[in-house]
């Protein structure tokens, strides 16, 4: 299956927009993207209308299309831009140099429309103060938008109405836009990728492939769980829908006989080799989404989970494809004040370096396969681009998530911050269930190739997933410190000196 893609034909080596990293790891992941944008892009695709790109297909509201055609055809999705709502939230709190005259006029009209429709029982709050409060409630859900223009800002995806597609303003388009026509909202470039750089799309296609497996019957469950998660704050959904609808009603430039204008985007492809994780990812996601926790926390933890699931896929196929014994994540959980920590740190850094070495070898192997006639300058350019969009992406996001330490300096290695640890427990252990501590370590290794104990390191060596080392007894202290970390997070209980259990204490969303 090496170098095969899903869907087939969505990418070819001679495509103008195709890079070697797109062919090897999926089109395409960029360093600018944040974990929240992985989540937002995935949910945007899931909630959009979709169709299989052929002559006869019809759009569907299904999150995941189950069809024999998905393997051979590209898939188009049509997110709703809701630019009126987006302008209302972000325009007044964004860079002056990117505010066009047409949008200044549109913003003032939108504020007046909402002001004219505000009904207050209290006379102590003026209309402009009510608008300010309303904007700040919505703006409070912003995600890492520093320095961005209003049209390129985004919110945490707390409801379907704020799943804004990425948009760019082209000066000429905005100058030709008219306040009396739909061009006010539609003359943006919705098909360029800078911040939402398809990481969420890769995750969506991975799930789509898994759900199209005849043995997987979790489509309906997963769709129900995602809709439930996005309905966790219904008040915000109603406010957002109201603002956008009032804007459209008053401006009256949408054709009511048809669907309002939608952005049209086409998904690309992922490596077919990612299918080895199909059953794991679906199981992890449905198990996690069943946990009844506060909606904002669930979205936050899921953003971590999506990133580590994508990274796991990338690292494993790089190691397999390059035949490098370095796919495991050796996790450093040992306390620094313990004498064993120096040995854990050294081995963890060695394994981390082998992860990165596998990318370099796999990229060179792919260049030789797809572009055998490239000269040295082209090879170096392809290698650098692929390194930037793989190794550097993992480093940047991993450090930002607290999964890679230290933030600066040598000896980089993996660790497990509390947020990722929570996701792992909640995605591997069903609600209100428990497993022994050793069984949980088995699950971490099976699902994510995470190694903490000497037993699992020995297993990884036997499976050619880690470099040979004769004595790793120091990992026993690493294992003990990991147990203490689980206990500090409220997930582990000692039943006796010899037995501990890891439990998921949360209730089910289905109850």
Q: Biggest sheet, strands in spatial order? A: 2-3-4
As for the number of domains, it is 2
The average pLDDT value, as a whole number, equals 91
Overall strand count: 12
The structural class is mainly alpha
Please give the share of residues in helix.
40-55%
Keywords:
511 residues, mainly alpha
Characterize the structure shown:
The chain is mainly alpha-helical and 511 residues long. The chain folds into two domains: 32-48 and 80-267, no CATH class; 298-503, no CATH class. The chain is built from 19 helices and twelve strands. Helix 9 (219-229) crosses helix 11 (278-289), helix 12 crosses helix 13 and helix 12 crosses helix 16 (418-428). The longest helix has 30 residues, at 341-370. The radius of gyration is 25 Å and the shape is globular. The model has no long low-confidence stretch (mean pLDDT 91).
Q: In terms of topology, how is this protein built?
A:
Layout (H helix, E strand, L loop, with lengths): L4 E2 L13 H6 L9 H13 L1 E4 L22 E4 L4 H8 L10 H16 L10 H13 L31 H6 L6 H4 L12 H13 L7 H11 L4 H18 L13 E2 L3 E2 L6 H12 L5 H28 L6 E2 L10 H30 L5 H13 L2 H10 L3 E2 L7 E2 L3 H11 L5 E3 H12 L1 E2 L2 H9 L12 H14 L3 E3 L5 E4 L8
Parallel strand pairs: 6-10
Antiparallel strand pairs: 1-5, 2-3, 3-4, 7-8, 9-12, 11-12
Brief characterization of the structure:
The model has no long low-confidence stretch (mean pLDDT 91). Helices cover 48% and strands 6% of the residues. The protein has 2 domains: 32-48 and 80-267, no CATH class; 298-503, no CATH class.
């Amino acid at each position: 299956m090496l170098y095969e893609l899903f869907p087939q034909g969505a990418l070819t080596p001679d495509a103008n927009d195709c890079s070697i990293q797109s062919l090897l790891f999926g089109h395409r992941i960029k360093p600018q993207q944040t974990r929240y944008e992985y989540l937002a892009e995935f949910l945007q695709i899931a909630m959009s209308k979709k169709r299989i790109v052929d002559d006869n297909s019809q759009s569907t509201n299904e999150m995941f299309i189950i069809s024999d055609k998905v393997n051979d055809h590209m898939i188009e999705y049509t997110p709703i831009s809701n630019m009126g709502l987006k302008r209302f939230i972000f325009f007044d709190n964004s860079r002056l140099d990117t505010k066009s005259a047409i949008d200044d006029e549109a913003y003032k009209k939108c504020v007046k429309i909402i002001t004219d429709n505000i009904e207050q029982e209290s006379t102590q709050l003026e209309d402009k103060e009510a608008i300010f409060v309303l904007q700040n409630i919505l703006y409070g859900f912003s995600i890492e938008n520093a320095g961005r223009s209003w049209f390129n800002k985004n919110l945490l995806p707390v409801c379907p109405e704020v799943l804004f597609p990425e948009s760019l303003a082209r000066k000429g388009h905005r100058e030709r836009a008219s306040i009396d026509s739909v061009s006010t909202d539609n003359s943006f470039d919705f098909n360029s990728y800078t911040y939402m750089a398809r990481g969420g799309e890769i995750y969506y296609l991975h799930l789509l492939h898994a759900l199209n497996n005849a043995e997987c019957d979790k489509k309906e469950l997963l769709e129900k769980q995602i809709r439930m998660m996005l309905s966790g704050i219904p008040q915000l959904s109603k406010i957002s829908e109201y603002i956008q609808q009032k804007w459209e009603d008053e401006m009256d430039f949408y054709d009511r006989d048809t669907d309002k204008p939608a952005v049209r985007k086409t998904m690309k492809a992922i490596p077919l080799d990612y299918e080895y994780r199909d059953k794991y990812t679906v199981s992890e996601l449905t198990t996690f989404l069943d946990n009844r926790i506060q909606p904002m926390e669930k979205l936050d933890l899921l953003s971590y989970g999506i990133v580590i699931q994508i990274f796991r896929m990338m690292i494993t196929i790089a190691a397999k494809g390059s035949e490098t014994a370095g796919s495991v994540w050796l996790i450093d959980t040992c306390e620094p004040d313990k004498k064993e920590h120096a040995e854990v740190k050294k081995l963890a850094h060695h394994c981390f370096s082998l992860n990165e070495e596998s990318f370099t070898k796999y990229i060179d192997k792919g260049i030789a396969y797809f572009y055998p006639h490239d000269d040295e300058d082209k090879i170096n350019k392809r290698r650098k681009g692929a390194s930037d969009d793989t190794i550097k992406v993992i480093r940047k996001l991993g450090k930002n998530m607290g999964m890679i330490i230290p933030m600066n300096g040598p000896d980089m290695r993996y660790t497990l911050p509390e947020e990722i640890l929570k996701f792992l427990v909640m995605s591997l252990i069903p609600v209100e269930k428990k497993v022994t501590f050793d069984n949980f370590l088995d699950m971490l290794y099976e699902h994510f190739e995470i190694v903490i104990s000497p037993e699992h390191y020995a297993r990884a060596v036997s499976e050619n997933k880690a470099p040979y080392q004769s004595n790793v007894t120091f990992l026993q202290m690493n294992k003990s410190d990991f147990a203490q970390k689980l206990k500090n997070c409220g997930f582990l209980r000692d039943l006796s000196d010899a037995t501990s259990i890891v439990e998921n204490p949360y209730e089910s969303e289905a109850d």
